[in-house]
User: What shape does this take?
Amino acid sequence: MFLGTLVYAIVNSFILILLAIGFNLTFGISGVANFAYGALYILSAYLSWMLMHLLGFPFLISALLSILITTLVGAIMYRLVLLRVRGQALSEVIATFGIGLSILELFRYLGFVGFEYTLPVFIDRSFVFAGTYIDMQRILIVVLGMLLVVALWLFTHHTSLGLAFRGIAQDERTALTFGIDSDWIATLSVSMGAGLAAIAATIIIPLGSIAPSEGYDVLIKALAVCIIGGLGSTGGVITAGFIIGMAERFTDTYIGSHWTMIVSLIAILLVLVIKPSGLFGHQKELEERI
Amino acid sequence: MEKRKERIDRGIKARSEDIFALSSWREMLYLAAPRLVPIILFLAIPIFLNPYWQRVMISLAVFAMLAISWDLLAQSGMISLGQALFFGMGAYISGTINHTWGIHPFITIPLAGVLGGLLCTLILLPVLRLRGIYFSMFTLILPLMLVRTIEATKIFGGTEGLSGMSPLPSSWLELYLIIIATLLAFFGFRRMMGSDYGLILKGICDNDRSVTNAGINIYWYKTQALFFSSAVGAFAGAYMTHVYMFVGMPVFALDYSIMPIASVVVGGVGTFSGAVLGAAILVPLSEILRGIGGLRIVLYGLCLVIFIVAVPEGIFHYIQRKYQQFERWVDVD
Assistant: This one.
């Protein structure tokens, strides 16, 4: 019982980390809170579903294509809309929120709801681990989650583009004097955030089905993780992902499934009361947050 | 030869700025018209409407109230994405009181306004220290999480909600009470923001640290603004409960968060007139578009994006400029 819950809690934590990491990347670098994040997640899932079932591509190709298209959509969204309202937090929030709303409600209007809208699992196998059944997809989520975090860390610390990302995040004007094009970097950060959402969708959606309402859930979860962890901090996202993921699973098993939402709500409130900048959000705390 | 546009105040505006406006009817009318027109329209139009459109008028007034409360928060530097929290809180408080003890709506509605305002302020108190976008994030997730909580714990009637609230005595009273309440909130808040008190709130929005430097406790002022705003939102929610005679999970729906924002963005931020104007445009429009169902929300979303990018000032500021200034092309030296 305990070990099984622990295993599923770890899987749940990695799902949360995967969901939050793209949102966090975009916000950490360009300061754009991408409220269309959940919609991009759903968009990529529907894209690969449509590529598979309407055009007949194999799963791997359609998944890769949908990740690519979603990345492009992120870039287009930045160039067409966000660039014009850059730096005005209110306008950015409302514009991205409007875009996300339109995408999700369009899918709902077109009638893309039902159990047949799902993606296939990568490897259809399950085995017994620590006394509980666990399928291959959940293991893959953990493995890919770790890989993605490590890859992202290597990218931001050891490539020139990644260092440019961090430069813009730390001080935009100084970075400009070093010849880093901040608009271009911001475009890349938004599109990479969208791409990460698409990757998360490709891995996580096979566990359930695609639904427009899922888009709002994903946004809520990403926001919850980022608020607790402190926006813009990768370590914070991982810690917060584990805190919420564990708390959710354990309340689900030992208290009751309908308390899971309340637990994360209480966690957010507690963190905000004790440390308003989040657990790890120390960067520019005074200017931005309080 | 290059030209540029020059804007100059109209003569009548300059003449009617001080006490000498009293010397001529024309100047007095110029000053009074913008204030009288909305009052007269709001009070006169319902007489000519059939019962269906009178219902639309009620929801117009309710959304205008929500938009006003959103605008008040925005002017004090708090961007809320969860106006549904205020609305739903008021609706549930008034609905529960009426459902359990059968108290008359005339008591429950104001009571729910005050209690809902207090409760929302208490819930958001820890978040009040957050600025800008962080506040928005929290307000966005709060109503959505509350819906889940109600769904899961089955409190307040769970998914089915509570029904059988007592209605308001007559349909004309129902209509005119909310219109008068909206007009009171509108002119009251306009007056408030024009006073020194409003100046502090605007100062918090512009530069909160310099307000702190002036020895003013910004958190206390933000708490007050939050209370005013959430009380107005809760009042609107409580009123809607008694109009529909039902309260359920839809009161926390995204519609009640989106519509006020869309109204203010379309109308123009920073003057409550923009909020009312936006609601007066969007609510009837959405009623006409009822046939296309879910596509309406898509249109709202696109409308938000287009207005934010292309017409960021909103319709009201455009009208105001035309009313007060004239424009001409002049040569660039």
About this structure: Strands of chain B lie at 3-9, 162-163, 246-247, 325-331. The interface with chain A takes residues 74, 79, 81, 126-127, 129-134, 136-138, 140-142, 144-145, 148-149, 151-153, 254, 258, 261, 265, 269, 293-295, 297-298, 300-305, 308-309, 312 of chain B (CB under 8 Å). Residues 218-244 of chain B form the longest helix (27 residues).
